[in-house]
Amino acid sequence: xxxxxxxxFIDVEDRIIGPITTRQFIIMVIGGVVVFVAYKILDTAGFxxxxxxxxxxxxxxxxxxxxxxxxxxxxxxxxxxxxxPKVRVWYKSVPMSAVVAENRNKQVDALKTDFIPRKSxxxxxxxxxxxxxxxxxxxxx
Length: 141
Hints:
It is a single chain. By secondary structure, the protein is mostly helical. It has helices spanning 22-41, 44-63, 71-83, 96-112, 123-134, and strands at 15-17, 20-21, 65-66, 69-70. The longest helix has 20 residues, at 22-41. The chain is flat, with a radius of gyration of 33 Å. The chain starts with 14 loop residues before the first strand and ends in a 7-residue tail after the last helix.
């Protein structure tokens, strides 16, 4: 019988440089590109402002965890919770008498249908069928 190794620790991210994960490294590279573009385009005051904002975002999105979840997952859950309605109201559009009448009609229709008796299977036939299924159709009985 073949043996297979089940992967463990699948929720742990791969580390590429010391304690830095791949996701954190990519976030830092994107932050570096933003700072470089700001250096080439903006003056000194604008460059410092954009650099500080980018550094803050890189630290927050790359390294901060809230309740063991990454920050971007937390923000996504927060936005979803804000967008979801706080109160759920069910508006009944069909009067109750119509629902009761419809259910009565279904019950009457069910009583009008012809009764089909269930066929009983003999124990010998049941054993043969079970053997056919267990052997994959090789046993023909």
